[in-house]
Amino acid sequence: MKISDEIVDHIAHLSRLEFIGNEKTAIKADLEKIIDFMGKLNELDTQNIEPLIFMSEETNRLREDIPEVSISHEEALKNAPKKDSDYFRIPKVLEK
Question: Which pLDDT belongs to residue 42?
Fold first, then answer.
């Protein structure tokens, strides 16, 4: 499949990236390779193949959730650039 500059520009806009000059050419080439590879996968016969649900037979080994104090309130606020008696002070980020 041929990837056009418009497709690259659209993807760049959606991902908030900017490709200029050689970068845009390289991205177009990479996207074309990816699309071609996906086309190769479509050529495979997968009629009698079970879907892969898990990559291995291993199960998750989870630790027991035991609450513990890892850092005190004072230690957490110690290096804060701005702080109140109990809180971090940050610039206002929401407007009314």
Answer: 84
